[in-house]
Amino acid sequence: MHTLLRRDLTVPLKIIYERSWLNENLVYEVYDRMKKEAVPLSLDRHVYFINFTSFGKQLPVYINLIRNPVDKVISRTFYKSKSRSNFYENCLTSNKSTNCNFKNGKPYDLSIPYFCGHHKQCMELNNDWALQTAKSNVEKYYTVVGVLEKLDDTIDVMERKIPYFFKGAKKIYGQEFFGISKNRYVPKVSDVIRQRLSESLAKELEFYDWIKARLLQP
Q: Terminus of the chain with fewer CB atoms < 10 Å: N or C?
């Protein structure tokens, strides 16, 4: 998403790398490093929600983008698997597999933790407290949460609500990036498998539908 930002922004992407969970010391380090950068400034990382005010720091403008959780899981597992042929059909029918047989209450790196925060319950699958906390944080702290399947609408909302950063983003997307991230091969799974995943990811789907409705509301 940072590719759609104004061209004069500083984007210090290497402050944190491949860390979703930050301890208290790292929170202070990230904040101090950000304060030393030139403004205007954006930081684009996969990090669980942090309420900087609880550390006595100024809250940034939060935005995010999520994807249909079933498609996200299928894509993630497919591209990490060594054997792509009938992977989900084999995986979901095997009790030995831990890669795709989701278990309620077990920790998973899905969408909700990125809005819920660093509490251990945030990663627990189908935890209602985590879902409600994520929704509450979105309402309180996120200016825009977009949806990948509604990217045009997402960019429109970002341009309208955060023009300082996203003015002209729709034009940039249309000219330079349209279609660039489309996978050449889309993993195919049966309707039965999709239904099973939908049932396993019930709270993730509820959160996704809520975010989509929020994005599209007048």
A: C
Position 129, amino acid: W
Q: What phi and psi values does residue 145 have, to the nearest 5 degrees? A: -125, 110
Triad 206, 210, 212: Cα angle to 5°: 120
Q: What are 166-175's contacts with CB under 8 Å, separation 24+?
A: 166/4, 166/5, 166/6, 167/6, 168/6, 169/4, 169/5, 172/3, 172/4, 173/4
SS3 119: coil
Q: What is the DSSP letter of 173?
A: I
pLDDT tens-digit map of 164-210: 888 888 888 776 665 555 555 667 788 888 888 899 999 999 999 99
Domain boundaries, the chain: 62-216
Report CA torsion sign: 187, 188, 193, 195. positive
99-125 per-position pLDDT tens digit:
567 889 999 999 999 999 989 999 999
Question: Average pLDDT of the chain?
Answer: 79
* 141 alpha-carbon distance from chain centroid: 15
